[in-house]
Design a protein that fits this description.
The protein is α/β, with parallel strands linked by helices. The chain has two domains: 139 residues, 3-Layer(aba) Sandwich (Rossmann fold); 66 residues, Orthogonal Bundle (Arc Repressor Mutant, subunit A), CATH 1.10.10. 53% of the residues lie in helices and 14% in strands. The chain has eleven helices and seven strands. The chain has a five-stranded parallel sheet with strand order 2-1-3-6-7, with helices on both faces. Strands 4-5 form a two-stranded antiparallel ribbon. The longest helix is centred in the last third of the chain and has 15 residues. The chain is globular and about 55 Å long. The chain starts with 9 loop residues before the first helix and ends with a helix. The relative contact order is 0.09.
């Protein structure tokens, strides 16, 4: 784990405090080393999932939190929503491998101020963090253009919306977990839902995606997951 400085440290006082939430330790380590090498940024803590993040952020007092979407024991977008409720002044940046065209708008609705793909250059991530700390949002040009188009079609049919964009945040979360090969019981336990509720969501997903069976849903979810890698 990268070396962290306390908030009372003279050096740390001049550097913005960054908290990392990612379910891969090697990713957190690489990001921590990169951020700690910056003259104006310092890592103040890290977590692999929502429960640890909520507990640690309360004492770490970060200026900005960098969240992935897929986390141990939860979902980054839902964590973003929870953190904004308990820490309204916390600045949140989503950093994920998941397609920004599908997830960026959802992250913004949850309270994030920016979205960066993990495939982006390191300089993009540093620029995004600094832009958020300066009070501005950070989105790629393609996402910004997409959001402007979506505003233009408010009240319209939205014919160019992809099928997955029609899913609610919860439905998309369950769809993603189906693509991971997880059972209804496993999904229910992970999301603190009843199996019946998960089955109901599955039925809604099938209708919205125009899929005839659970096997069709599983196949499409796996194909979508493989295409995201």
């Amino acid at each position: 784990m990268a070396k962290q400085r306390t908030k009372n440290s003279p050096t740390a006082d001049k550097r913005a405090r960054v908290f990392l939430v990612d379910d891969h330790a090697i990713v957190r380590q690489g990001l921590a080393e990169l951020i700690n090498d910056q003259p104006d940024l310092i890592i103040c803590g890290e977590a692999d999932g929502p429960a640890q993040a909520i507990k640690s952020i309360a004492t770490a007092e970060p200026d900005v939190a960098v969240l992935d979407i897929t986390l141990n024991g939860g979902d980054g977008i839902e964590l973003c929503r929870q953190l904004k409720e308990t820490h309204p002044k916390l600045v949140i940046l989503m950093l994920s491998m998941h397609d920004e065209a599908l997830y960026a708008e959802r992250a913004l609705r949850a309270g994030a101020m920016g979205y960066v793909m993990k495939s982006a250059p390191q300089e993009t991530l540093m620029a995004a963090i600094r832009k958020l700390l300066a009070g501005h949002m950070y989105l790629s040009d393609s996402v910004s253009a997409k959001l402007l188009r979506s505003f233009g079609r408010i009240g319209g049919a939205g014919a160019d919306v992809s099928p997955l964009e029609r899913l609610s945040d919860r439905e998309l979360q369950i769809f993603q977990m189906i693509g991971q090969g997880r059972s209804v019981r496993d999904i229910a336990d992970a999301l603190y839902l009843s199996p019946k509720t998960v089955e109901t969501h599955k039925e809604h997903i099938k209708v919205k995606l125009n899929l005839a069976s659970s096997n069709d849903l599983l196949r499409y979810a796996i194909e979508t997951r493989m295409g995201a890698k």
